[in-house]
């Protein structure tokens, strides 16, 4: 089927920072601990230097707490988005599109990046599991709402 381009345009995706550690297990059975990894995804949106660009930062921390055997992964990426000039979305519609589509696209990109990075590692590739997007977005909103305000000096 022919695709219809989205009003949200992915202009670029770049790796900002990456760290990888291998912790040798006693036995080479990856499924025993891959499913037990603690995974933390965090994201933020920032205006780009070009006023039409929106920078979407996504950070993935995998198995960085208890450090179970296998892989310890930290990865931070940035997606550059803009909206088609012909769109007439208001700011709330744009934010909703960024929360949903931009987040989903960025997670897909970082999932592929981590799978490629770990493909040559001793236990084979690691895939970030499917993510409950509503829970992630609501958790972020709750965090922002309850975050202590910085005092101005």
Overall description:
The chain has helices at residues 31-34, 91-118, 133-146; strands spanning 8-23, 39-47, 54-62, 70-83. With 153 residues, it is an alpha+beta fold. The protein has a four-stranded antiparallel sheet, covered by helices on one side. It is globular. The mean pLDDT is 90.
How are the elements arranged and paired?
Elements: E1 8-23, H1 31-34, E2 39-47, E3 54-62, E4 70-83, H2 91-118, H3 133-146
Antiparallel strand pairs: 1-4, 2-3, 3-4
Average pLDDT confidence is: 90
The total beta strand count reads 4
Rounded to the nearest angstrom, the radius of gyration is 18 Å
Order of helices and strands: EHEEEHH
Helix/strand structural class? alpha+beta
Q: Name the beta content range.
A: 25-35%
Query: Helical content, roughly?
Result: 25-40%
Shape: globular
Question: Count of DSSP helices?
Answer: 3
How many strands, what sense, and barrel or not for the largest sheet? 4 strands, antiparallel
Please give the alpha-carbon distance between the first and last residues. Answer: 58 Å
């Amino acid at each position: 089927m022919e695709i219809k381009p989205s009003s949200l345009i992915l202009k670029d995706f770049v790796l900002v920072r990456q760290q990888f550690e291998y912790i040798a297990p006693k036995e080479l059975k990856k499924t025993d601990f891959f499913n037990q990894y603690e995974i933390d995804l965090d994201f933020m949106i920032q205006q780009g230097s070009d006023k039409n660009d929106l920078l979407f930062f996504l950070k993935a921390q995998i198995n960085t707490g208890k450090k179970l055997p296998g892989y310890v992964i930290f990865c931070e990426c940035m997606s550059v988005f803009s909206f088609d000039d012909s769109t007439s979305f208001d700011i709330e519609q744009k934010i909703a599109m960024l929360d949903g589509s931009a987040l989903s696209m960025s997670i897909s990109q970082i999932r592929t990046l981590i799978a490629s990075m770990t493909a040559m590692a001793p236990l084979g590739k690691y895939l970030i599991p499917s993510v409950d997007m509503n829970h992630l977005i609501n958790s972020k909103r709750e965090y922002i709402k309850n975050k202590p305000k910085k005092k101005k000096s």
